[in-house]
Amino acid sequence: MPRVRLFAGARFFSTARKIAAAAACIVTAALVLAPSHSTRAQSQATSPPNGPVIPVGPQYDSTHVYLATADFDAFVKSFIATFGGTASQRTTYNVLSVPSSTQFQSVVSPGGVLSIFAFQTPIPYPFGSERTGYLVTNMDQAIKAARAAGADVIVEPFKDPIGLDAVIEWPGGLRMQLYWHFKSPTAPPLQTIPENRVYASADTVETFLHSFLSFSNGKILSEDAHADAAEIGRPNETFRRITLTSLFGNVRIFVTDGHLPYPFGREVTGYQATDFKSTLEKSKSSGAKILAGPLTLVDRDTAIVEFPGGYIAEIHDLTAPTSRPR
User: Hey, what domains does the chain have and what are their CATH numbers?
Assistant: First the structure.
């Protein structure tokens, strides 16, 4: 049984990482897949925002990785060896609104940010069930906008030492953490934007799309009703795939029937590599295992990798569809 739990939450703080650890909050989500539907026009945008802009930027969104204490060092070393970046000092804090204790360390790489936790106590409910978290411009406005877009607030905003945190749930079950700081953090833009990889059912995907795009002021970059299902471990089949973007970052949605071979659906984040082959070699050399792939698709090379401690991630490059035959 893997010893890791995965979350995505925004926790990047430049020089104040030790304090930020006390505020790091948790986030996870699970959705599953669906049959093909008609394809929407590429670059379809949502309606103009009716209120303030809620997101800040993808450099403030981090995947939360939950490890056993014994796996901490090996994981951090392997991830940095694969993607580059730096790690903060490891500290121990209560990061929640109720009594608990966790070791915390952040990793900032050119292609994404991690918040790494090794809890010393049981994780209070519902933390551990949510995975995606974002920095927002104003917590009150964000909560109001989330509710208006159809989200449930499952953890009401609470104070931490440097700001406010909350957890919301979107139609279909995807949970994310929102956070806001008393003093605005500053972070440089990422070199490449990671993907939040969402597995959704046909029953809820349209409601999720409407809700999340309304909240994020995002747009649909592409939609393929007959994408190559080899991407999700089912070669010689097709499925519906949708790609979104917003100031929160990128989202790649897989609409399926939920019949997914391992490890598909276990990867929370996809990382774009500037040199795909070299990145995979670095991951293997540093102790990671390739669980699926490498696979060449019409728009990318892709593989799914498991790092020490059980964290599963997708790695890809991006290739223009016209430059490579299927």
Answer: 5-39+54-181 (3.10.180.10), 195-323 (3.10.180.10)
